[in-house]
Write a structure and sequence with these properties.
Shape: globular
Strand order of the largest sheet: 1-4-3-2-9-8-7-6-5
Radius of gyration: 27 Å
Helix content: 25-40%
Largest sheet: 9 strands, mixed, barrel
Strand content: 25-35%
Length: 543
């Protein structure tokens, strides 16, 4: 496959030109001039993914780079014909740059044993405005075939007959040229109907270039059927914290929220997860479904007021929105707080996304339980709110510190996690006191496995709202393609990962032992009802 062959290669400048580089009868070409014509980015479509390679000169060496792969040396064969050869450690392959009718280099091809791919230059000029019926129909068929051929559990929650009708209905809506977000809205009912939180369609990166400074600027919470302003992506507070949104650009907010709910993917159609994702990603979902606006006209009421007000808000930029939405990908701080007068520790783990920092995460876990052991702490509040998963190599060490005896983590041996199907040895400083785990609707994926195991083995109690996941989820490798014409990204689950439990209902989330409901007044007062409930439970314990 191409992406295993050419991800970074070096085109070495020849020290001398001879018969090995110049065909008989040719004059030596102007090497530097030819090399300068090769500079730029070329894009390939390989294994249903767009993949750019950048050609540039560095320290006298012509280089081509795509992130994540080892360099491959490419040797000139015939500079006059722009021909090179390379070797990736497995096979030799040929590289040839191509001129267009105007004489400019605009493509290059890679060819090996039974395969050939062509990359085009200046692919940034791809349109993202209007797509033809034919282009969208091709992409629709590509998406359907991909799901039918590759998704591990396409019909787990929706039978094939129902899906066939849905495919036919949505395909029938492609009856005129459309904008990208209009076509996107035709696809989302399909992924939402699967009941898989790891299966979804996402906008290509180029879509956000249409309005990088035109996103809805407010952060929201959904509380007691109200859409409440919880913050701003801009430095200025354009609408007061706690205000209730009624309309955006004259569109009723309830209509917007209901449309989002009906089209968002979740494991077993988990409503708690969907609500948590709408809260977290509202600005980006709004842009995907309704496009960008130069200004946002918002109708709202002030906190504890009934009089309607209207304001025109300046939009936020994509960078500020992404910094909040994807904060869990930036290694948020891991903390341990001690309340020694209550013999209580509060451990906060916002994510297990430490794939590239597993030793750091494990050292944090070890140090925390060392402190808990040394201080003879009797109560542990494990705050997993907002933790939407990550690396099992992080979750398993934590589980080993909480299990009362060795239990398996996964139901089956899964690839590099195969060892986790065996009983997990208990940590030397494992906790033997009272555990309270705080959960909410964002608890998902790996965190779903983790919480399911705690629940199944009756390890402590849960405080909060129902989780956003069950004991199983669908994921795996090579779970992304780019639709050929619109470049919309389709993510899907190829395999299932299940926690080592028996008899649990795959359609049910983890249910808290002590449910918590946050009221609008609690929000205005800044109360952390989850933590308050946990501390009261600890106060009520008698040893």
């Amino acid at each position: 496959m191409f992406n295993k062959l050419v991800l970074m290669f070096l085109i070495v400048m020849p020290c001398g030109l001879n018969s090995s580089t110049i065909a008989d009868g040719q004059n030596p070409p102007d090497t530097l001039k030819i090399y300068s014509e090769l500079y730029g980015e070329y894009e390939f479509y390989i294994s249903e993914k767009y993949s750019p390679i950048r050609i540039y000169l560095e320290n006298g060496i012509l280089m081509g780079q795509q992130k994540g792969f080892d360099p491959i040396t490419v040797t000139p064969v015939n500079l006059g014909e722009l021909q090179f050869t390379g070797y990736n450690g497995v096979e030799y392959f040929q590289i040839r740059f191509i001129r267009n009718e105007e004489g400019n280099i605009n493509k290059f091809t890679l060819a090996g044993d039974g395969w050939e791919y062509t990359g085009e230059k200046d692919f940034q000029k791809v349109k993202y405005d209007i797509f033809t019926v034919e282009e969208m129909q091709e992409d629709f068929k590509q998406m359907r075939k991909t799901l039918e051929d590759n998704h591990c559990c396409l019909y787990e929650y929706t039978d094939k007959e129902t899906f066939d009708r849905l495919f036919a209905r949505q395909c029938g809506l492609i009856d005129k040229p459309m904008k990208l977000n209009e076509f996107y809205k035709i696809l989302t009912p399909l992924t939402a109907k699967i009941g898989c939180g790891h299966t979804a369609v996402w906008m290509p990166g180029g879509y956000w270039d249409l309005g990088p400074d035109k996103l809805f600027p407010l952060q929201i919470r959904l509380i007691e059927d109200k859409v409440v302003v919880s913050g701003s992506y801009n430095n200025s507070v354009q609408i007061p914290f706690g205000s209730i949104i009624l309309k955006i650009n004259d569109r009723p907010i309830n209509d917007i929220i209901e449309e989002m709910k009906a089209n968002y993917s979740a494991d077993a159609f988990n409503k708690n997860f969907i609500i948590s994702q709408i809260e977290r990603r509202f600005s980006m979902i709004l842009a995907r479904r309704f496009g960008f606006s130069d200004k946002y006209k918002v109708t709202f009421t002030l906190p504890d007021r009934k009089t309607k007000k209207t304001a025109e808000l300046l939009p936020a930029n994509l960078q500020s929105v992404r910094a909040v939405v994807f904060a869990n990908f930036n290694h948020p701080e891991l903390t341990l707080e001690l309340i020694e007068e209550k013999s209580t520790a509060i451990m906060t783990i916002k994510t297990f996304i430490y794939y590239d920092r597993v030793p750091y995460f494990k050292n944090y876990i070890d140090s925390c339980f060392q402190v808990i052991h040394d201080k003879e702490i009797k109560n542990l509040i494990l705050d997993l709110r907002g933790n939407d998963g990550g690396d099992p190599f992080c979750a398993v060490p934590l589980f080993s510190c909480l299990e009362p005896e060795p239990f398996p983590y996964f139901a089956e041996p899964y690839g590099k996690y195969s060892g986790f199907a065996d009983p997990i040895p208990m940590a030397e400083k494992h906790f033997t006191g009272y555990l309270l785990t705080l959960i909410d609707g964002r608890c998902f994926s790996t965190n779903g496995h983790f919480c399911a195991l705690l629940k199944y083995h009756n390890i402590g109690d849960f405080v909060g709202t129902e989780s956003g996941s069950t004991y199983k989820c669908n994921a795996g490798k090579n779970t992304e393609i780019h639709l050929r014409n619109t470049r919309i990204m389709l993510y899907f689950g190829r395999g299932t990962f299940a926690a080592a439990v028996e008899g649990m209902d795959k359609t049910k989330p983890v249910i808290p032992d002590y449910p918590v409901k946050v009221t609008y007044q609690d929000f205005l007062d800044g109360k952390d009802v989850f933590m308050e409930t946990a501390l009261k439970l600890i106060d009520s314990k008698k040893y």
